[in-house]
Design a protein that fits this description.
This protein is mostly helical and 492 residues long. Helices cover 77% and strands 0% of the residues. α3 runs parallel beside α10, α9 packs antiparallel against α20 and α10 packs antiparallel against α16. The radius of gyration is 23 Å and the shape is globular. The two termini are 21 Å apart. About 4% of the residues have low confidence.
């Protein structure tokens, strides 16, 4: 990912150089170069504070949600009925969907994220789900498992949209793409780490009178609790009062954000901004795009070890063989984000990622040899994870207005994860049925991405045609109109 961040710096240097190359600007070129160097240092300082801890939190979150599928829960221990295993997986996503939008809307109107700043809210969420994860290792029956899985989804629901929103108050639009991709890369790392973790901790069978599957959840939960306590001292507060920045750095950051057509000052909560999000067809487009990708993401990440085991490998081999596909996915994310920054494109790469994933699923469905099918797993993982990494940062860059953007991000995750609810219930059938459904969902994503690209390009052209020298640029106008303001340009 360092290459991606370096490329961002080079693009900014080229832009500033071109602005300063005229004779009228040569006089201020030295000041421009110094300001550019200071901006680069500022972004790296923010990166070092935000990215490591927030990516680690998401890695732990994704690890929690996939480990239940990677741990062989013995039906005799928990008195599980036949379909109860898949139901427990689905219950997580039901809670996740129910609590997603409230976790971002409530912060602006009543309680958490807006009134409690992220320095308290995000670590607190992590602490609670760590405790719930420990309890998951202590359940003794089906009812307990169902309740714990629901609580886990409810407590983790606020993390992803909260972090995406936090990025929007520290990074200008063109800087967010790479950071969201690095953050989402935690999911791919969790997939790789999860296989190794399940294999290693599973060897603790019988220690302390507990089963290996219990130790996996207990130790994972204890690790999450430990990280959450550290996070209280590392996760930053809002950018306008960030103590890890100097006064000059805060002023420069707020000036950059304000100049990026998204006011950096505090925006009062109004329900009209929530309505703007729910009535914007583009916001629904981002949500439906993730909905298409989410079924493939979660059905693949949840059941990858089982899919690989069905190719003829032992269970312990299957756990370890999940590492290469997830590693390839992480590398693919890095390459795609680098290309999207270099080529200034988004929709076309999301479409290409979907095509790659579809090819992978077709190979899984048609190949007869384990080696070829394992190659299909790699293609599916690379395409699915890459497409998700690109699309999840899209509303954060294209939706203006603090409240509207927070709701839009939460809507995207909420309606996307509705697709994830169905994933666990299509296990079995030699995975033919979920593979075919995943192909259908990915084709749907291609249609939605094409729709978004068409409308975003059209809106930009309409705004260009209506531009005048007298175009209003007051903060109140920009707050009221958000991304519909004539000066606002979409990225696609």
């Amino acid at each position: 990912m360092s290459e991606i961040l370096q490329h961002e710096k080079e693009k900014e240097e080229d832009r500033v150089a071109s602005e300063s190359s005229s004779p009228a600007n040569l006089e201020g070129s030295l000041d421009t170069a110094a300001r550019q160097q200071a901006d680069h240092h500022l972004v790296r300082k923010i990166d070092s504070r935000l990215l490591p801890i927030l990516t680690l939190l998401y890695l732990l979150s994704f690890l929690d949600r996939i480990m239940n599928s990677r741990v062989p829960l013995p039906t005799q221990d928990l008195k599980l009925s036949a379909p109860a295993y898949n139901t427990s997986l689905a219950l997580y996503f039901i809670a996740y969907v129910l609590f997603e939008v409230p976790s971002n809307v409530i912060p602006f109107s009543f309680l958490p994220l807006k009134r409690f700043d992220p320095q308290f809210w995000l670590p607190s969420l992590t602490l609670v789900w760590g405790i719930v994860s420990v309890c998951q290792g202590l359940v003794t029956n089906q009812a307990g498992l169902f309740g714990i899985r629901f609580l886990l989804g409810a407590t983790e629901a606020g993390l992803f949209p909260g972090v995406i929103y936090l990025f929007s108050v520290y990074y200008i639009r063109r800087e967010r793409r790479a950071r969201v991709a690095i953050f989402f890369g935690g999911a791919a790392l969790a997939g790789a780490f999860g296989g190794i973790l399940a294999f290693a901790i599973g060897k603790m069978e019988g220690i302390g009178g507990r089963r290996g599957w219990q130790w996996i959840f207990i130790l994972e939960g204890l690790l999450t609790i430990l990280v959450s306590l550290i996070a209280y001292f590392v996760v930053p507060t809002w950018s306008y009062k960030a103590k890890f920045l100097t006064e000059l750095e805060r002023e420069r950051l707020l000036s950059k954000l304000d100049g990026d057509t998204d006011p950096a000052h505090k925006e009062p909560f109004r329900w009209v901004y929530v309505k703007q999000a729910f009535t914007d067809h583009l916001v629904w487009g981002y949500a439906l795009l993730f909905h298409g990708y989410a079924f493939a993401l979660y059905s693949l990440s949840l059941f990858m070890p089982t899919i690989i085991a069905d190719l003829g490998f032992q269970s312990w081999q299957a756990q370890l063989l999940t590492v290469p596909p997830n590693t390839l996915a992480a590398l693919s994310i890095a390459l795609a984000v680098w290309l999207s920054i270099r080529c200034e494109c988004r929709a076309i790469l999301i479409i290409i990622a979907a095509v790659v994933a579809i090819i992978g699923y077709i190979v899984l469905l048609t190949a007869t040899k384990p080696g070829a099918q394992y190659a299909g797993v790699h293609l599916a993982a690379a395409g699915v994870y890459t497409g998700n990494a690109l699309l999840l940062s899209w509303p954060g860059e294209n939706v203006a207005g603090q409240t509207k953007r927070a709701v839009a991000v939460a809507m995207q995750i909420t309606f996307g994860d509705i697709g994830a609810i169905a994933g666990p219930n299509f296990a079995g059938h030699d995975y033919r049925k979920p593979h075919i459904i995943a192909i259908g969902y990915l084709l749907f994503s291609i249609i939605v991405a094409s729709y978004l690209r068409f409308w975003l390009a059209r809106d930009n052209k309409d705004k260009d045609a209506k531009m005048t020298e007298e175009s209003a640029e007051s903060i109140k106008d920009r707050q009221r109109l958000g991304d519909r303001h004539i000066l606002y340009r979409y990225v696609y």
